[in-house]
Design goal:
Mean pLDDT: 83
Helix content: under 10%
CATH class: Mainly Beta
Strand order of the largest sheet: 4-3-2-1-7-6-5
Number of helices: 0
Radius of gyration: 12 Å
Number of strands: 7
CATH architecture: Roll
Number of domains: 1
Structural class: mainly beta
Strand content: over 45%
CATH topology: PH-domain like
Order of helices and strands: EEEEEEE
Largest sheet: 7 strands, antiparallel
C-alpha cells in the first residue's frame, strides 16, 4: 500500500508542510522517508526516537533525534502489495 501523507514540523521553529507518499511506516531507529509527488525527490528525517498514534485518528506524532513532527494520513492507495500498510506499524 502506498500512503499519501502530510508531514508538518511542530515546535518553536515549525516549518512548511511536506505532502507526498510515505515509503515505509515510522519505526524507532529508522529515518522517515516521504517521496514528493514528482517521484524524483525525497524528504528524509533524522532517526525516529518515538511514535505516538492516537486511537481512531489518522494522525501520528513523531519525535526524531532533532525535531518533532505531526504526520497526517490522507489516503491509502492499493499497490502491488510491496509496500507495508501504515495502519499496523511496528512501534517500539
Amino acid at each position: 500500500m502506498l500512503v499519501d501523507v502530510v508531514l508538518k514540523k511542530i515546535g518553536r521553529k515549525s516549518g512548511r508542510s511536506v505532502a507526498g507518499r510515505l515509503l515505509r511506516p515510522p519505526r524507532k531507529g529508522s529515518v522517515l522517508v516521504i517521496e514528493f509527488p514528482d517521484g524524483l525527490h525525497e524528504y528524509v528525517t533524522t532517526p525516529v526516537k518515538r511514535v505516538l498514534h492516537l486511537c481512531g485518528e489518522k494522525t501520528y506524532y513523531i519525535e526524531t533525534a532533532n525535531s518533532r513532527y505531526r504526520l497526517e494520513v490522507s489516503s491509502e492507495q492499493p499497490d502491488r502489495g510491496s509496500e507495508p500498510r501504515l495502519s499496523h506499524p511496528t512501534l517500539e
